[in-house]
Amino acid sequence: MKKNVFLITALLFIGLISQAVNVITPKGDKNTETTEISTLTTTSLSGIVLDNETGEALAGVAIRFEGSNETFYTDFDGNFKINNVVPGKYNILSNYISYADNKLKDVNVSGPKNVIRLVLKKD
């Protein structure tokens, strides 16, 4: 019994320390100085996506940082939140079916609260 408890505890510990940290970094030169993850400070970016004409919240809008392949989606109320963002300036790309693609340039992400509002126009 003690052997099983030890084995389960050891496996949980190994699983926890082996988790990869997913961090989004600012746009720019990929040959910039690297920073150790243990000293890296991250923040979050949240917001809402609305229809230009009606002001209605849009669910399922794809949002990503320019230069990144990771895509985030708005919830049923048009809200989104992206965690583990390294402070910096970003271009935010958004697209949605039957709406024009949108690019919000040079969004400054810094400090604990970063909230943006994206307004999409129909094609």
3D structure, described in words:
- This protein has 123 residues and is mainly beta.
- It has one domain (23-120): Immunoglobulin-like (Sandwich).
- The protein has one helix at residues 2-17; strands spanning 43-51, 62-65, 72-73, 79-85, 88-95, 102-109, 115-120.
- The strands form two sheets. A four-stranded antiparallel beta sheet has the order 3-2-5-6, with no helix packed on it. The protein has a three-stranded mixed beta sheet with strand order 4-1-7, with no helix packed on it.
- It is globular and about 55 Å long.
- This is Carboxypeptidase-like protein.
- One of its GO terms (molecular function) is carboxypeptidase activity.
- InterPro entries: CarboxyPept-like_regulatory.
Write the layout of secondary structure elements.
Elements (H helix, E strand, L loop, with lengths): L1 H16 L25 E9 L10 E4 L6 E2 L5 E7 L2 E8 L6 E8 L5 E6 L3
Parallel strand pairs: 1-7
Antiparallel strand pairs: 1-4, 2-3, 2-5, 5-6
Give the key terms.
123 residues, mainly beta, Immunoglobulin-like, 4-stranded antiparallel beta sheet, 1 helix, 36% strand, globular
Summarize the structure.
By secondary structure, this protein is mainly β.
